[in-house]
């Protein structure tokens, strides 16, 4: 990502967002560390003041002994899919657990068409596609959000919780409150401008509208 | 899905008379007074139950009606645990109940999932095998509220089969006294036990009764599960004996057969609630079944001991701190409804969830059918109201300071609000709720934009109407003015892409005193 960033910096020097070759829009005000360990799927928006902690990646099997497999897969910290919007002031912090006295980090995966509202703290192990995370939510370490989930604003998803597909969760700690309707994410308008994007639907238009 | 202030709900007409609905649709709004009386009243207490966001509505293509969750019938496709996402076969549901029987547990205090932790000190043993690196006793630990089974004095020797280990242990770490088999043996039970409940243990001895053990007050009363098993055995025994008594061939009166005490109805009940029962339902029942009469048969007697237990509970409630008592929601979540103190709570197996197909309540057509796999989110059939009904969305048009004037095209506007909300970090909390600049204020006029999206391939004519004067507590004295009450929405033009839409924007103005929007209706097609 870092290479794309630098190459495209010359293209749009004035705007707030740096657009990469694959269409990712990363705000200049975002705080990104460890860019080598971050993957953006394309047409993904990272807004201002987002903290992407790519430096918190999984170390080789033990901290003290340099193992023979510092492979590329093990150093992935954050991977984000396509058409995902990370709103301002979010913190994406890969989950960690203390493993035999040593802190071990695990990758954080976010799928496609995920909207993460402003001011969220995300330490989930995985967020699947078509998920809407309301503003100010906290996804505690190692929770797993499955597809088509709506997380109400201000919820705290407890650690290790698996949110089943198609459910609405909320509360502190979050519990499953209901189900999203059958029409979750279905956009009648289709390619009809950014105003018609729906929660859980295709966020391509929203991404396109971000400038 | 709209939750912030200007939102749109659709009223399903399934609750009231649909014939008047039809009449209303075909009627021209010539008599406003008459119309007012018959229009949908969003303030009626009953209307809360028929208002749904359009995402939750289905559309029956046979009846040409929208179908809300109240007027569809549901069929369970599969049961699964929300925690481990494993499908539970329906035979397991019948036998073991509707809770996950794997190693999933929820915290009884805060309902978040529990994790199995080892109590062993994390001194790293030098072997590098990841399988058995942690030994020692295990506990269930809540990472959210730090509750653990240590609080109720339970540890597990093995990390697997927590369900079985938990069933064998009482709160406090004492082993659960083996289930009393005396009643069934004294009743000369003819059929073998066929239940396989989660905590069904092979119990050779039958000496103790739970009420005699010196334990906390809740444990002195017989365990509800034990009582349930006693009752089950008792009723099964009665069924078998009445079955045997029936063999001589007596004539039955229908009244005794249908009575609540007759063996046939109890057999039906047991079939419904219990597990598989070997004995066939008797054809007739001359002798009604009696109820349980002794504690061995499952009778709960309120005697001096129970009274003392109650007194002890009350005393404990008077003396101990508030947070040592289970809250109402904790008691409702608990499997043991008699738990009063926090110490009586136990880890809860999560309730299973279902995937359901939906049928039209009127014509039985399948409206939605998800795929059978638990983790799959696709559906085989999905007839959405979104694809058959015009979608209405209301947006605040103007807060003149922040919004562009109403003359500009609506295309870019929400985008711009989005950007003003999002891109400036100095906008703190007020910017977080996008509805706040547009909230209704007294004595100000607020403009709203009603957008209709027509998913159909035919153009529709739209008539909007609002009550002449808003009634109700908040709406009194305010007016809703619709600037363009009639217009046409063109057909969905793009036939290649099902979803392209034609949009007609109409400005709807509200003279707000302190008001809520009136309801516009769609008349005719």
From TrEMBL, chain A:
The record's section on SUPFAM superfamilies has: Trimeric LpxA-like enzymes
Instruction: Name the GO cellular-component terms.
Output: dynactin complex
- Gene source species: Eremomyces bilateralis CBS 781.70
| Keyword Magnesium assigned | no
Q: Where in the cell is it found?
A: Cytoplasm, Cytoskeleton
The record's listing under Pfam families reads: DCTN5
Annotated Polar residues bias: 60-76
Q: Which UniProt keywords apply?
A: Cytoplasm, Cytoskeleton
Q: What residue spans carry the region label Disordered?
A: 1-22, 57-76
Query: Which protein, by its recorded name, is this?
Result: Dynactin subunit 5
What segments bear the compositional bias annotation Low complexity? 1-10
Question: What family does this chain come from, according to its entry?
Answer: Belongs to the dynactin subunits 5/6 family. Dynactin subunit 5 subfamily.
Automatic annotation (TrEMBL), chain B:
Q: Which domain of life is it from?
A: Eukaryota
Annotated region Disordered: where? 23-44, 166-225
Q: Which UniProt keywords apply?
A: Acetylation, Coiled coil, Cytoplasm, Cytoskeleton, Isopeptide bond, Phosphoprotein, Ubl conjugation
- What InterPro entries does its record include? DCTN4 (IPR008603)
Please note every region of biased composition (Basic and acidic residues).
177-200
Its main subcellular localisation, reduced to a broad class, is cytoplasm
Q: Where in the cell is it found?
A: Cytoplasm, Cytoskeleton, Microtubule organizing center, Centrosome; Cytoplasm, Cytoskeleton, Stress fiber; Cytoplasm, Myofibril
Q: Gene Ontology terms, cellular component aspect?
A: dynactin complex; stress fiber
User: Residue spans with biased composition (Low complexity)?
Assistant: 202-213
Q: Which family does it belong to?
A: Belongs to the dynactin subunit 4 family.
User: What does the subunit comment say?
Assistant: Subunit of dynactin, a multiprotein complex part of a tripartite complex with dynein and a adapter, such as BICDL1, BICD2 or HOOK3. The dynactin complex is built around ACTR1A/ACTB filament and consists of an actin-related filament composed of a shoulder domain, a pointed end and a barbed end. Its length is defined by its flexible shoulder domain. The soulder is composed of 2 DCTN1 subunits, 4 DCTN2 and 2 DCTN3. The 4 DCNT2 (via N-terminus) bind the ACTR1A filament and act as molecular rulers to determine the length. The pointed end is important for binding dynein-dynactin cargo adapters.
Q: Which PANTHER family match?
A: DYNACTIN P62 SUBUNIT, DYNACTIN SUBUNIT 4
- Protein name as catalogued: Dynactin subunit 4
Q: Give the originating organism.
A: Eremomyces bilateralis CBS 781.70
């Amino acid at each position: 990502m870092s290479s794309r960033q630098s190459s495209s910096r010359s293209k749009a020097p004035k705007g707030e967002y740096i657009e990469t070759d694959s269409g990712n829009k990363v705000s200049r005000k975002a705080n990104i560390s460890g860019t080598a360990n971050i993957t953006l799927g394309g047409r993904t928006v990272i807004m201002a003041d987002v903290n992407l902690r790519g430096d918190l990646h999984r170390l080789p099997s033990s901290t003290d002994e340099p193992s023979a497999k510092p492979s590329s897969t093990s150093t992935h910290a954050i991977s984000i899919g396509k058409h995902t919007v990370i709103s301002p002031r979010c913190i994406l912090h890969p989950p960690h657990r203390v493993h035999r006295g040593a802190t071990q980090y695990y990758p954080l995966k976010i799928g496609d068409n995920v909207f993460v509202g402003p001011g969220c703290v995300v330490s989930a192990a995985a967020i699947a596609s078509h998920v809407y995370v309301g503003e100010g939510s906290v996804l505690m370490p190692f929770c797993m959000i499955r597809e088509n989930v709506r997380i109400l604003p201000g919820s705290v998803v407890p650690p290790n919780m698996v949110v089943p597909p198609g459910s609405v969760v909320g509360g502190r700690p979050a519990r499953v409150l209901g189900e999203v309707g059958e029409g979750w994410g279905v956009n009648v308008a289709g390619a009809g401008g950014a105003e018609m994007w729906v929660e859980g639907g295709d966020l391509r238009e929203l991404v396109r509208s971000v400038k | 899905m709209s939750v912030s202030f200007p939102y749109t709900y659709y009223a399903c007409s399934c609750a009231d008379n649909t014939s008047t609905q039809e009449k209303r649709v075909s009627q021209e709004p010539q008599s406003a007074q008459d119309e007012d009386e018959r229009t949908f009243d969003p303030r009626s207490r009953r209307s809360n139950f028929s208002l749904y966001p359009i995402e939750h509505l289905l559309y029956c293509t046979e009846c040409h009606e929208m179908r809300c969750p109240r007027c569809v019938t549901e069929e369970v496709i599969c049961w699964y645990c929300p925690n481990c996402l494993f499908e539970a076969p329906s035979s397991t549901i019948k036998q073991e109940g509707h809770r996950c029987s794997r190693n999933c547990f929820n915290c009884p205090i805060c309902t978040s999932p529990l994790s199995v932790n080892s109590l062993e000190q994390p001194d790293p043993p030098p072997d590098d095998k990841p399988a058995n690196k942690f030994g020692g006793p295990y506990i269930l630990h809540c990472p959210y509220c730090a509750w653990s089974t240590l609080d109720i004095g339970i540890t597990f020797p093995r990390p697997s089969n927590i369900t079985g280990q938990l069933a064998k242990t009482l709160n406090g770490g004492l082993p659960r006294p083996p289930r009393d088999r005396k009643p069934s043996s004294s009743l000369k039970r003819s059929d073998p036990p066929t239940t396989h409940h989660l905590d069904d243990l092979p119990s050779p001895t039958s000496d103790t009764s739970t009420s005699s053990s010196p334990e906390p007050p809740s444990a002195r009363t017989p365990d509800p599960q034990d009582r349930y098993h006693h009752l089950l055995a008792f009723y099964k025994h009665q069924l078998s004996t009445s079955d045997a008594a029936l063999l001589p061939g007596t004539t039955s009166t229908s009244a005794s057969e249908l009575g609540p005490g007759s063996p046939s109805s109890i057999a039906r009940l047991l079939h419904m609630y219990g597990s598989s029962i070997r004995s066939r339902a008797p054809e007739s029942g001359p002798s009604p079944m009696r109820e349980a009469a002794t504690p061995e048969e499952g009778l709960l007697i309120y005697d001096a001991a129970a009274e003392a237990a109650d007194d002890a509970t009350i005393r404990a409630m008077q003396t101990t701190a508030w947070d040592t008592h289970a809250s109402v929601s904790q008691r409702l979540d608990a499997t043991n409804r008699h738990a009063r103190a926090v110490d009586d709570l136990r880890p809860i197996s999560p309730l299973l969830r279902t995937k359901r197909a939906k049928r039209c309540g009127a014509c039985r057509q399948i409206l939605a059918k998800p795929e059978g796999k638990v983790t799959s989110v696709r559906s085989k059939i999905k007839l959405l109201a979104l694809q058959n009904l015009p979608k209405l969305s209301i947006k605040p048009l103007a807060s003149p300071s922040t919004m562009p004037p109403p003359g500009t095209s609506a295309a870019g506007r929400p985008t711009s609000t989005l950007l003003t909300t999002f891109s400036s970090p100095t906008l703190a909390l007020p910017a977080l709720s996008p509805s706040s600049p547009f909230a209704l204020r007294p004595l100000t006029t607020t403009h709203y934009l009603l957008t209709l999206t027509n998913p159909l391939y035919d153009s529709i004519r739209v008539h909007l109407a609002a009550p002449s004067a808003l009634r109700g507590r908040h709406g009194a004295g305010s007016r809703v003015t619709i600037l363009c009450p009639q217009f046409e929405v063109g057909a969905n033009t793009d036939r290649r892409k099902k979803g392209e839409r034609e949009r007609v924007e109409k400005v709807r103005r509200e003279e707000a005193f302190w008001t809520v929007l009136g309801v516009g209706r769609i008349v005719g097609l």
